[in-house]
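Below is a filled-in request sheet from our internal design queue. Each sheet records the structural input a requester submitted and the sequence that came back. We keep these sheets so that new team members can see what a complete request looks like end to end.

REQUESTER: design group, bay 2
PRIORITY: normal
MODE: inverse folding
CHAIN LENGTH: 157
BACKBONE (tokenized):
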């Protein structure tokens, strides 16, 4: 089975001191801000000249420890095993969400709730099409850990 990994480079972005964006929670000192001139390029390489980028992936079993008042942002990686429909959170709610489930190498499952625009713009058709060719790995960066009725999940607003 061939696994395809796509790497994208963002050019012409600005590094902004987080103090200038006090209305947004950040766990690092700087954030990247896109400009009108920002470009996204998919690298077409076999890996020899792809720059090294890193995420700080949180193991699934450590996520409950991240459910604190500060809500630090987490990065998770896993094989997409389920994509739910974009629908109302409950019969009485006006909020919409999509539930994604991912699995790690130890076959642990983690639920991710994509709220509003994130859930609506998630391209489920591409995931389903790619799943016919092989496994689909998802990287979810900047999500927060929460729990409801004793069940742990990640969410992206």
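RETURNED SEQUENCE:
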């Amino acid at each position: 089975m061939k696994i395809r990994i796509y790497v994208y480079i963002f050019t012409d972005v600005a590094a902004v001191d987080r103090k200038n964006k006090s209305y947004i929670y950040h766990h690092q000192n700087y954030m990247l801000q896109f400009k009108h001139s920002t470009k996204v390029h998919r690298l077409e390489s076999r890996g020899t000249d792809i720059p090294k980028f890193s995420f700080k992936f949180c193991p699934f079993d450590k996520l409950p420890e991240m459910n604190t008042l500060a809500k630090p942002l987490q990065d998770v990686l896993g094989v997409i095993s389920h994509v739910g429909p974009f629908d109302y959170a409950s019969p009485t709610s006006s909020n919409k969400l999509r539930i994604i489930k991912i699995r790690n190498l130890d076959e642990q499952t983690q639920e991710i709730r994509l709220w509003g625009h994130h859930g609506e713009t998630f391209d489920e058709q591409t995931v389903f099409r790619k799943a016919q060719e092989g496994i689909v790995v998802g990287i979810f960066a900047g999500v927060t850990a929460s729990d409801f009725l004793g069940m742990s999940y990640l969410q992206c607003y």
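SHEET NOTES:
- The chain has two helices and eight strands.
- The mean pLDDT is 81.
FILED BY: M.R.
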